Amino acid sequence: MLIAIVLSLLSGVTRTVSRMVNAQLSERIGPFQSTFYNYVLGLLCSVLILFLSRDPWPVSTLTAGQIPAWAYWGGGIGVLFVVLSNFVTPKMPAFAMTLLIFGGQIGAGIVIDVFIHQQFSLGQIAGGMLILVGLLGNLFIDQNRQLA
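Structure (tokenized):
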């Protein structure tokens, strides 16, 4: 479990750093071209990692046929995330952007747990709502300080 926690934290760090780097490129060449280069380099890195890991490649037709079609849309959803981030990141501080993304992830996590995994927990929903209220409170306080 400790490894999963450390890797989750590392994932959050890399997502924030990636968002900032993409935003810098986006300001220079535009959000769509920046997204394109992000995914071209991502593809090259993925192929290298796949090659070095010695996992079977490409996915066999037997395995591919057993996977629901919607499961392949993660890359497309990732493109949407990068494009949206490229538009928004240059317009707000990294911390505020991270808080808002975190709030969106909490909401999405609750919806996925309830509707896909059929796991409804009042504790999770209450905890998620408290975190969202805290995040929004933090953003509100920071915004009022900047206006003063």
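Residues 92-148 form one domain. The chain has two domains: 13-91, 92-148.
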